[in-house]
Design brief:
The protein has about 400 residues and is mainly α. It has 2 domains: about 290 residues, no CATH class; about 70 residues, no CATH class. Helix content is about 45%, strand content about 10%. Strand 7 and strand 8 form a beta hairpin. Helix 5 packs across helix 8 and helix 5 packs antiparallel against helix 9. Keywords: Signal. InterPro entries: DUF3300. This is DUF3300 domain-containing protein. It comes from Polynucleobacter sphagniphilus.
């Protein structure tokens, strides 16, 4: 028997929840106590976060190895897919190696999100607080250079507190990039990466930004000698890490050879991401993977919020097809038999429905279609689910 490969909540509900994070009260750890040095109002390009606010956002991951940090930031721009991937990983923890890689081929997520499946601690960190993930991704889209500067400031503070140094798991070095002093974190063994676990309130020395604090949801694992920094189990990198930060420009640079290997290994033909050619290229944001999740920055909503409707429809169709593919490939005979019985019962109920009941279903269907075309609030189409069989049955939270 397979476990539910998808979130138990519908995508519409997840989008609603994520939208609430944007529309509700500002996050306490970003704007707990207004800083007198912060901008007092939104600029024409959208609200600008100062270094204190950006530091509080990025603190939980600023000490990650460079490549992993880069992919965490770009995955955070797709919070709905992060939520799906985190739930998928929890429900399919028994899959490892080639079996997990094969199962991921049908998922339509962005490759940055898929790559985090190989780093469950990082993915779990993001899945625990989607509000933080969403804010982090939006901050990177709106202020990439500023966010990178916040990372470097925090790394310097952790280094000054003797909590960031080289060892068997990682190598910490200083480079000059575009005239700037940059602290670089890389795995000591390029084929094995260790994801650090640390308390962001303590690892940087006295917290430098009173009034703006990191999110309070992390399990602080004790480490030997009472230190504030420890490592999990070493993880084989393989092709899962294919990006690095370019600190001076704020861009993320893709190693195209490694990216293409990952792309072909973790996607089937229907879900293949774009191939990258040449040695390197800059990462480009793809708003289609955002689904309908809004942005916290009005400028981002203006820039990306009105993507082509047919592109959205194609993305949604790919998600639904992936759900069907996973079900067909992994459901047990008993589950398939139960599904068939449910369809037959629904078809029988529809056949026995009165003319009035059928007319009510048709009216509801027309109302839903009209609402979708005009953007009016959604009308509950539950009556149709009671009678229609075949393609309307829901499995694992998705319409089948």
């Amino acid at each position: 028997m397979i476990t539910n490969p998808h979130t138990p909540f519908s995508k519409k509900l997840l989008v609603t929840v994520l939208s609430g994070f944007i529309a509700g009260t500002p996050l306490a750890y970003v704007q707990a106590q207004p800083n007198p040095n912060a901008p007092s109002a939104a600029t024409p390009s959208g609200p600008i976060l100062n270094q204190s606010q950006l530091g509080s956002l990025v603190a939980p991951v600023a000490l990650y190895p460079d490549s992993l940090l880069a992919q965490v930031l770009i995955a955070a721009t797709y919070p709905l897919e992060v939520a799906e991937a985190d739930n998928w990983l929890r429900n399919n923890a028994q899959l490892t190696g080639s079996a997990r890689e094969e199962a991921l081929k049908t998922q339509p997520w962005d490759n940055s999100v898929k790559s985090l499946i190989e780093f469950p601690d990082a993915l779990n960190l993001m899945g625990k607080d989607l509000a933080w993930t969403q804010k982090l991704g939006d901050a990177y889209l709106a202020q990439p250079k500023d966010l990178f500067q916040a990372v470097q400031t925090l790394r310097a503070k952790a280094q000054g507190a003797n909590n960031l140094k080289s060892g068997p798991q990682q190598t910490v070095s200083t480079e000059n990039q575009d005239g700037q002093k940059i602290i670089v974190i890389q795995p000591t063994n390029p084929q094995v990466i260790y994801v650090p676990a640390y308390n962001p309130y303590l690892v940087y020395g006295p917290w430098p930004y009173p009034g703006y604090y990191p999110p309070p949801f992390y399990p602080y694992a004790p480490s030997p000698g009472g230190m504030f920094f420890s490592f999990g189990v070493g993880l084989a990198v393989g092709a899962a890490l294919w990006a690095t930060p370019h600190w001076g420009s704020g861009s993320v640079v893709i190693n195209n050879t490694t990216y293409n290997n990952f792309n072909h290994g973790y996607n089937n033909a229907a879900n293949m991401g774009p191939n990258h050619y040449g040695n390197q290229s800059d990462w480009k944001y793809n708003p289609a993977h955002r689904a309908n999740v809004p942005y916290s920055n009005p400028a981002l909503n203006n820039r990306y919020g009105n993507i082509n409707q047919s592109h959205q429809a194609a993305t949604q169709a790919a998600r639904q097809q992936s759900a069907r593919n996973y079900w067909n490939q992994n459901a047990s005979p008993q589950e398939k038999q139960a599904a068939q019985q449910t369809r037959e019962n629904a078809q029988k109920a529809w056949s026995n429905a009165s003319a009035q009941q059928k007319q009510a279903v048709q009216n509801t269907t027309k109302a839903v279609q009209n609402n979708r075309s005009t953007g009016a609030p959604h009308v509950n189409a539950a009556p149709r689910e009671e009678f229609r069989g075949g393609g309307e049955m829901r499995e694992g939270g998705f319409r089948r």
